[in-house]
Amino acid sequence: DAGVIQSPRHEVTEMGQEVTLRCKPISGHDYLFWYRQTMMRGLELLIYFNNNVPIDDSGMPEDRFSAKMPNASFSTLKIQPSEPRDSAVYFCASRGLALTDTQYFGPGTRLTVL
Amino acid sequence: QKEVEQNSGPLSVPEGAIASLNCTYSDRGSQSFFWYRQYSGKSPELIMFIYSNGDKEDGRFTAQLNKASQYVSLLIRDSQPSDSATYLCAVETGGGNKLTFGTGTQLKVEL
Predict the structure, then answer these.
(1) How far apart are CA B108 and CA A31, in angstroms?
(2) How crowded is residue B81: how many other Cβ atoms within 10 Å of its Cβ?
(3) Going residue by residue through chain A (114 aa), what tens digit of pLDDT does each one get?
(4) Residue B102's CB: how many other CB atoms inside 10 A?
């Protein structure tokens, strides 16, 4: 398996623009997680899905953020409108059924909002 | 109080020494604990997990858990320069499948 795939790897945009981040989880994994990492706040869970259903979105910072998982092999995280404080590395991760299964992270998308 | 706390470091140890990384957590209901390693510019990767009090060994790595003290640690024996990275402690929280991460401890292994 190619692992968790994310695109784009780097995104530079201007404040106010819409940003869409994409993730393809490992085939057969039941859980998908979106995280954001900054120097100040570390790695924060934004939302996670189980079998394509959003389970907990309490980490989504505000209504400007939305996430979808239309099928088992694809998820998106959208920011509209983007702001400079959204600049961070966004990771997608997937995992099998058990909590102690390894959570595999994608390579991340480095987002810069000017 | 943060849910998961780690000393940010950097922690510097000489090659061949034992590196000791520590983590405390606030949720007494947490049952599972994880250590991830993250190289600069890369994504986190799982080193090991522990869910029973005591020690768990895997090669040069030993995880230690003390639920009464809400404390988990990672020992790296015979530290190598390739161990230089940021180590993230993660704790299962919310009674479910969520992991809460500490901000990480930067380890530097010096020649």
Answers:
(1) 33
(2) 10
(3) 689 999 999 999 999 999 999 999 999 999 999 999 999 899 999 999 999 999 999 999 889 999 999 999 999 999 999 999 999 999 999 999 887 888 999 999 999 999
(4) 26
For residue B61, give both structure tokens. 């790595």
Say if the Cβ atoms of B102 and A99 lie within 8 Å: no
The whole-angstrom separation of Cα B74 and Cα A86 is 32
Q: Does B46 touch chain A (CB under 8 A)?
A: yes
Residues of A in contact with B96 (CB under 8 A): 55-56
Q: Where are the beta strands (DSSP E) in A8-103?
A: 10-13, 19-24, 31-38, 42-50, 53-56, 65-71, 74-79, 88-95
Give me A76's structure tokens.
Answer: 């998106």
A43 near B CB under 8 A? yes
Q: Are B1 and B70 in contact (CB under 8 A)?
A: no
